[in-house]
Amino acid sequence: MAETDRVKVKRRELTETFLEGKNMSKVYGMGRRANRAVDNVNFKFRRGEIVSIVGESGSGKTTLAKMILGLTSITEGQLELYGQPRAFGTTAEKREYWKNIQAIFQDPFSTYNVFSKIDKVLLNCIELRGQKDLPYAQKVEIMTEACSFVNLRFAELTNKYPFELSGGQMQRLMIARIYILKPKLLIADEPTSMVDACSRATILDMLLKLRDEEDMTIVFITHDIGLAYYVSDTIYIMKSGQFVEQGTSDEVILHPKSDYTKRLLSDVPSIYEPWDLTSDDLLSEEDEFPTAAGGAP
Amino acid sequence: MAEYILEVKDLKTRYVTRFRENVYAVDGVSFKLKEGETLGIAGESGCGKSTLAMSLMGYYFPPLHYTSGSIIIDGRDITGEDPEVLRRTVLGTEIAYIPQAAMNALNPTRKIIKYINDVLVAHNIRLSRTELREMAEERMRLVNLPVEVLDRYPVELSGGMKQRTVIAISSLLSPKILIADEPSSALDVSSQKLVIKMLLDLIDKGLVKSMIFITHELPLLYNVTKKIAVMYAGQFVEMGPAHESVFEPLHPYAKGLMGSIIVPSEGIRDEHLVAVPGTPPNLKSPPQHCRFAARCKFRQPLCDSVVVPERFSSDGRLFRCLLPEAVLRELKYEDQIKSKQEDAEVELDVNIIPFAEDNGDGDSGKESGG
Amino acid sequence: MKHRLRTTFQNTNFVVGFSILVLLLLLTFVTPLFMQGSPLDMVGTLFNKPGNYVNRMGVIDAPKYPMSIEVASIRLGAAVSNDEAKQMLEWLEKSELDVEWKGLDPEKDRAAIVELFLANYDDSIRLPGTSAYRKGFTRLYNKVQNLLSADGYVVHVADPDSESGYREVGKIESRDFTNVKDVPARRFFLLGTDNFGRDVFHELISAIGNSLMVGLIAGSIATTIGLLIGLTSGYVGGWLDNFLTFVTNMFTVIPSFVILILLSYSISSSSRSIVVVAFVIGLTAWPWTARSVRSQTLTLKNRDHVNISRLSGFGTVRIIVTDILPYVLSYVVMAYILQISSAILAEAQLSMLGLGPSTTTHATLGLMLSWSMQFQAPLSGAWWAFIPVVLSIALISFSMNLMNTGLDQVFNPTLR
Ligand SMILES: Nc1ncnc2c1ncn2[C@@H]1O[C@H](COP(=O)(O)OP(=O)(O)OP(=O)(O)O)[C@@H](O)[C@H]1O
Ligand SMILES: Nc1ncnc2c1ncn2[C@@H]1O[C@H](COP(=O)(O)OP(=O)(O)OP(=O)(O)O)[C@@H](O)[C@H]1O
Ligand code: SF4
Ligand SMILES: [Mg+2]
Ligand SMILES: [Mg+2]
User: Which of A83, A141, B327, C347 is the most exposed place for a label (fewest CB within 10 A)?
Assistant: First the structure.
């Protein structure tokens, strides 16, 4: 597949609701130290939709993602797949679920087990697809195809260890993994926060192609409001575990209603308008120490 | 006081890997910085930005090695000076470096004030407890950080707060030059803004004289620094005033990079982004000809056979490309240049520099290694 | 992995430590081949000092070689001490005889002093002082009387047929020599003998071997338990983690020594073999390995590669083995080495308290120390019975710690 040098999001009609979260909460710890990381959120993801969840650090984005992925338990509320509560009890059910819902993460360097060869990552996906007993030659075929989708040559990767790849190559390989699994939902937790603008466009390009081919739903979790605006159909703004605003990209970014969104937007550096560094509301909550913590002796 | 606070001439440094291979991560970088100036460096991941930052301190430890070139800080050439002398008299006082992810390197078991003491002791400054506290509190007020921070452990601080504390500690000895390597990449926009505000404050108040700012977030860079350098595979391929670099880049790679900027403003959703296909060259054996050639859509036959020198435009901007300045100024990334098959080629206005016989230092490194 | 191993063996600290250990091991395997008997045979008597012991009758039987070597002064030097020479000078002074004793140095002119004393000593001269004081001089006279004579000894054997009851079988001239090699019955005690008359060197070699075995067994047990508990508790989390952490904390809070003492005590002393003691040590030393493995597992568990494996549908055991274990392994190797060395120390401490292995057929470094202390070797000046043991313990810990530092330098990126 020839690599394109122009990336453009195709807008499309969205109807079929795929995944729905109802009153979902996550509480870490218990008793006095309980921390409500995600607090009663509701959302609806449709087939082929691109969603962004934007919010400050510690607002619970990753926690929500982990709940959806089934990597952490849901304290309250439920998750519905095509209107049915998700089946997530037995190992077989979990595997079935993970065939449909997958993720890529922020830091390509920590996404790999440095002790196993990288072919393993792709082989494991084939195993998850239930094709463990396929003859090796066919597995190689699948892997070669996946690698060429992300412009890597499989022959060059075999028998290599992750640290012998560049960060960009590692991130592409993660996308190749998704290509093999072809999940219905992909959660991308800050997939581009470590890369430059050009590589970000390349990664976007590949993810968008996947969406167009497989009708995949992609959830971007990001600090990058520009990216969120550019790619997504729907944006959720998250603060302290809650969604303070949600709507189509244009609604949320161009006509924000909540004060928090407005402030967030004013903090984003632009190249077209001057960036206001003087405003006083900058010295925000971050500088106020909760007196209860009382670190001073 | 010298005319330039920092002058870097043809600096080359390399990593020697565990397998005794050389990685030429900084390969011929030159620039000058006046007092009060800020330089922003952008570039693809792995192009050598962090390595350049570390190299600028003149303090090398394996696997990083110095090859050639000079670093002149305020008239003093620090290359070749004794590392121990450097550590005491240059690091922290003349030039300070805030490494990538520095905020996660804070020792979780030491209070911030202890940390400040450690930094001072490392520079043979010993203060009594009250003196230390007084001086630390004054510093915190100066940089608009609450003094309570001093008695906190790093884990009790939020990411943005930690990063600002790290910056405050790094600038404790009022270095002439502060190098900040991706200080805000891991932060959300609000914390990021506070960090930037603090960095600019430091310059305004004269606590640091100049700053080198490394990031891959171009809109941020554009807002923070007056001068932007774009790095590609160990070299600067473009350097000039921020506005021109962003809106009228000369070098083809810079054009691609600037073409993929997204900011949340009306109309951006309908635009195309530029994604330069391909991957950068392996820095273990970078090509001697144009390093961008393999990915460049404007490549000319000559691009594969001559060394590309640093060139300067009529208004003093640096670019490392063989195409004539006038052509580059007109060219947009989405344009098509006459293809190589057609015999009409663009006239390249450059003296042909043949390849060096051998990459001398590379070989000597291999010999000593083997 | 191969590369890690290579850099490890390029690290000076590690290589030095490792070489010491290998040498010690070689010593324990090779030397027994050249030694006679078992290491715990009681061949000598209480605290014989180091040296080559030859049979006295064998010396008489061996061929003799007359040599023109001045023997008298050498014998004198060996037989008359400095103090005795001073005592003689004192008599010469106090007797007020007209002899030139002034200017004689008890150290250098010992032969001259003895000669002068022998020539002039007279029982009838009554020096002032108690009779015991005077008797001292008489005793001294009797002792040195025949030292200067060149007459030699006559050797007799009992012979009832003879008139005197003895029969002369040989004569030993003062200048006769024997080649030690000609004496068939001899024994070399490099480090003398201990309180039971056992060859300390032989015993030490086998004790080093046994102590290393204690270290190895205890270290392996502690590391295995610590690793298993740490991994499970860290990765699985939840109530299992709480429970295991509770158990671990309990073991950490109660000093392991108390447990050791109780355990050692409750196991009847007759069944307290070396292996049992090693087990006891191993069973109490695991908590700190468990704790650090657990905390490492906790951070590793949140790494994205573990999340990816979970998303690939892998089971807990598979993830622990492939995604967590390799990351903690370098650390575990280091902990293992430290466990071995601390187990050796623990055995020594236990034995000093009398709670070590109760055996008389095998020695350990701790037992050797304990025996030598019980028989007051330091008071008897029998340094050879305990200093080599202490040095061996120190050497083993030193080599282990050196290896550990070396590994730390290889594995810990911040020190590189
Ligand atoms: N395993 C955990 N145990 C306890 N608390 C947790 C855990 N993981 C996260 N938290 C807490 O939950 C809150 C939300 O964290 P989360 O990682 O979801 O934030 P985030 O929005 O992803 O932030 P970032 O942008 O920094 O990634 C934080 O206050 C965090 O301290
Ligand atoms: N310790 C090392 N040994 C060998 N090569 C290294 C080492 N550290 C970095 N490199 C190589 O040197 C090059 C430059 O790395 P550097 O960290 O300077 O990049 P960077 O521009 O800062 O990237 P990023 O944006 O990801 O921080 C990369 O190709 C990298 O692979
Ligand atoms: S020198 Fe040639 S290949 Fe290199 S950037 Fe310029 S046009 Fe492209
Ligand atoms: Mg997160
Ligand atoms: Mg960097």
Answer: A83
